[in-house]
Specification:
The complex is a heterodimer of chains A (about 475) and B (about 850). With about 475 residues, chain A is an alpha/beta fold. Chain A has 16 helices and 15 strands. The longest helix of chain A has 22 residues. Chain B has about 850 residues and is of the alpha/beta class. Chain B is about 40% helix and about 20% strand. Chain B has a 6-stranded mixed sheet. In chain B, strands 3-4-2-5-6 form a 5-stranded parallel sheet, with helices on both faces. Classes of the chains: A alpha/beta (about 475), B alpha/beta (about 850). The interface between A and B is large, with 70 and 63 residues. Chain A: Its cofactor is Mg(2+).
Amino acid sequence: MLLTITTTHQPATDLGYLLHKNPARLQTLEVAAGQAHIFYPEATAERCTVALLLDVDPIGLVRNHRGPAGEGFALEQYVNDRPYVASSFFSAALSKAFNTAMNGTCKDRPELPEQLLPLEATVAVIPATSAEQLGSLFSPLGYTVETEAHPLDPTVPEWGNSRYYTLRLRHTGLRLRDMLSHLYVLIPVLDRGDKHYWVNREEAEKLLRRGGEWLPQHPAREFITRRYLRFAEYVNPTLERLLAGDEAATDDLPIPAEAEADTTAGPLSLPEAAAGPAERLSLHDLRLDRVAEEISRLGAKRVLDLGCGEGKLVRRLLKAAHIEHILALDVSWRELERAQQRLHVAEMPPRQRERLTLTQGSVLYHDPRLAGYDAAAVVEVIEHLDESRLTAFEQVVFARARPGAVLVTTPNADYNQRYETLSAGEYRHEDHRFEWTRAQFAEWAAGVAGRHGYRVRIEPLGPEVAEVGAPSQLAVFEQ
Amino acid sequence: MPHYTSLKLPELSLVLLIGTSGAGKSTFARRLFQATEIVSSDQCRALVADDENDQSATPDAFALLHYMVGLRLKRGLLTVVDATNVQPEARKTLVQLARDYHVLPTAIILDVPDRVAEDRNRARAERQHLGRHVVPQQRQQLRRSLKFLKQEGFRHIYHLHGPEEIDAVQTIVRDPLYSNRKQDTGPFDIIGDVHGCYDELLALLTQLGYMVHTNPTEDVRDLGVHVTAPAGRRALFLGDLVDRGPASPQVLRLVMSMVQGGQALCVPGNHDIKLLRYLNGKQVAEKHGFAETVAQLATESEAFKSQVRQFLDGLVSHYVLDGGKLVVAHAGMREEMQGRGSGAVRAFALFGETTGEIDEFGLPVRYNWASEYRGRAMVVYGHTPVPDPEWLNNTIDIDTGCVFGGHLTALRYPERELVAVPAAQVYCEPVRPLRPAEVAADVAQLSAQQQHDDLLDIRDVTGKQIIKTRLLPSVTIREENAAAALEVMSRFALNPKWLLYLPPTMSPSETSALPDLLEHPAEAFDYFRRQGQERVVCEEKHMGSRVVIVLARDEEAARRRFGVVGEGPGRCYTRTGRNFFTDATLELAFLTRLQNALTTAGFWEKFHTDWLCLDAELLPWSAKAQELIKNQYAAVAAAATAALPEAVAVLSQATTRGLDGVEALLARTTARQTAAEHYAEAYRRYCWPVESLSDLRLAPFHLLATEGHTYFDKDHAWHMETLRAICLADEELLRATPYRVVHLQDIADVEAATQWWTDLTAAGGEGMVVKPYDFIPSGRQHLVQPALKCRGREYLRIIYGPDYLLPGNLERLRERAVKSKRNLALREFALGVEGLERFVAGASLREVHQCVFGVLALESEAVDPRL
């Protein structure tokens, strides 16, 4: 909610000219989230400090639908940290308050913006996964980084520290406009990545423009870019394509596969040697490629994709000429909407459109629409079901739908020790209800096959490692 | 030929008017049938082409006509097809439609001379274009058709010659189908397959209270048997009276005399029909015990055989009884066939559904139609011997294989009681053993209904659903809400067999106008006063997490009543059907503690039950919401208490510079800092560390159900006192909820209750819940809110955010509307009550789940979550 910038440049009051803000006045601007106040707690020739205080109006935020959507926690829309942290709202306010300075114009003193100044900035408070994360983002830009952690609740010491830090940045010689653009870009990047906040398209594009000069050299550019695109995608899904160049590229963007362990810690805290985002994405691709290949080998003409998600397997299956029809189901309405968009279902030519039915369904309810298929793909689905509900899943798929073949993939728990960020017993994804060892999966698969007249073989998915096997496993059931 | 003045038709039939253009079909139809019963080809042509005479539209017009006819027949409505219908292929499609929906086709031929028809056509502008050949050609087709109509499948054929005969018809008489005995309400004693087991039948009838006297007589019309039925009751035989057993003629004699005497009804079985064919002189294979019957009949008189023949010939395939609530047929009856007439219906009644396959015993493989049965009517049937009669989707097979050494069973209707007598001996060895040799152990423990309920059908929950409830005539679930519920139910809910009930949402009282308050008891009391309530119950609102507990006395009782195996004796679940505990060991320990308390309190004996369903609050809040508190509430407080002092410091520094407006900003920011501290205190009050069972507290407030009962008919004081008795049995774990009964007209009473609320909330309590004294107040036109909450000022900080009391904020927050929340609360309440009542009444999981799913779906309606 608060940013202060101090300089000891002589005369320090040049800061007022640079910012185009009079040190003798309190200025208040109306911004999207509420009001931004600009004032100078000190303004002498030796030392001058400007403060930007963002006073978020939480009630106004709700009424203008600008706050968090409140998914999973309904009250989040109303009770949240937005009024107290440096967030994308803060970036927007920063841009509005110091637009002239950020553009590097100073009418009265045209030489000032290019001057390297000793600068100090304090942000209170900024969310981050760790102090190291703050260091890894700001140190490469030449700052001395100082952080102060805050306890989650001082009366409950065992809860440890919160995710909020007071951040102090010092630089011996830097253009003010660069510091502003660093803050402008990196503040929303640090904002919690697992939630989308409202940023309009224009601002998303500005983010890119502001980073243009220094971002390409930044060691964390991939992570920073990814965070931009998350914002952009939410605003306008086509913007992502626009920015990435072409459609094929979207699949290769380092967006972590949904079923992998990356939600708890930012990628920056992942050791390079462990599964980086790129490697994990390729695992998901590899898994889908393998399933598609197996479906082709089986010669299946009518294929079920149970738990189709955003449609990555469907896209592969549509390319296979021998497949006449795909019934792709997901229980999540949101995922289906994403799939609709990603696969461009509305714009498909009629013949292609006829090959695909994309609709809501559940693998826990008998569904007569599932009968009469040659193969069913159940990719990374079962581990999202409570173990006690697997009997219902078994009934629906193996007893009632009875496709000619069923392909089931699930993580291999034996492999989890290879993920250094996972502690023992921890799952790769917070929604996983179980992760099976190879032996457990084999036992379950054999039981299912025996009860329903299928034969089954299991193969590793992904590069195998001695003792622990491959990261994922595939069971192919055939009647 | 005499002129008909009235035509008799089956009440449900497809009537084809057959006649040339200009024969007067439309006039005839309009005169004798309701306008909505007539589907006309001209009208269909107009609908698809804007022109009744556009012949190019004929295929589409008939597609529409067939579609409409099909829908009407599916819905069981008499339908008249106003088209020429002179060509056999046109009639064939329609007759097929009638067959598909088990409706009898009727033909009414309007046969007028060509000249009359042509004159009429000439008089009508829109028929001017008809060529001269048209009418004669149509009439020729009609004449050729006449002799084939019976063969085509028409049961009733009326041929009206000339305008005079046509005009003579004044009325259509609609005959009820023989199977329709809806006025007949019983009570009945429905008796399964007898197969010549006379002694057992006699024993069973005696046990049911019938008195049977036999006195042989010379008069052949008198069968020599006289039966007195118990008051008002009648026997209802499900057929297969004969074959295999030792005394088929005696059984026939007894049943026939009971039917004659009005003490019984009877539907035919396949064996009875085989006997009829034999008596009619047809060749019949002497298999499956028929030889015995033939031998037994050899000594009977021709007169008796003739009576048997007449009796069997008069039997009706199945009966729909008691206002449509009961259907009986030998081998069962699918819903869409009930009360309809066709060859397929009769065949189904006799043989049931078979797949066409033959099993290892050489018998046809039967398809269990009952597993898909969704009908409202109870269906009682026999035909397939089963070791024990079991309910499945409101159907029951009561053929318990008496002739094979099993039992002869009767179902008393409407009591649903089974009465059985054992077979005196094995009269016939069954080809297929009566009891299957081996069944998986866990499956064998479950009833047929429970096994069937292992799998729910997506069609029963998705799409727009309209659920009839006792409290509200119908609750509509919108498709998008059902879609949301499908996701939540599939991803997060526990085994649906545990989900008997989901609690309704609760509205707050209307917004208070008092300073510094959003809610106050005055508005809640006002609401109930306006609803005509004299008394309310105020219960302290515990700030924990809502939990529904379904708990059996032991795992065996859980299996028996809930049909779950290996999931422990019970479950605790949240308002959205999620498992409350993530730690199974802790859950079991908790449930065991609760079981012990119930045992100590003598609950099981007192309520004659081995299970119960409780509505309760589990404390502390942090037990369930720890992660939420850390990630949301504590996080907001941490951010606020870290950032605000920095802002205050910088503003204080700025005040020394004397900048305009900074003082006010400092004051406001300092106020926010204080608010943030109060906010942190507010959530901390409801948290304490949970390390073991002894840190948990359970405050039950509704005893919802036990075996055979729900307790929605008991007032809240009863619930409070009943639960207090249980709480006393384990005062560490269980917490009785403080409450008071308030007489709304008694000012002192109301003031005292208000003071109680003020004290509770000042001490940091969440507030209270105000409920009408009766769980469901009677005598009101509209349903009254089952409860309103009144939350305290401090508590509301965690709902409305740290700054909610700041100047400018509270005023805006007062603009809240409780109406849609209340509407939702009533609909969810009606569904919750309905689901639990269905469960207690022994409904299938599908019927219970529909209500529970409905509550979850309604919860996805967009309503301000702060209310």
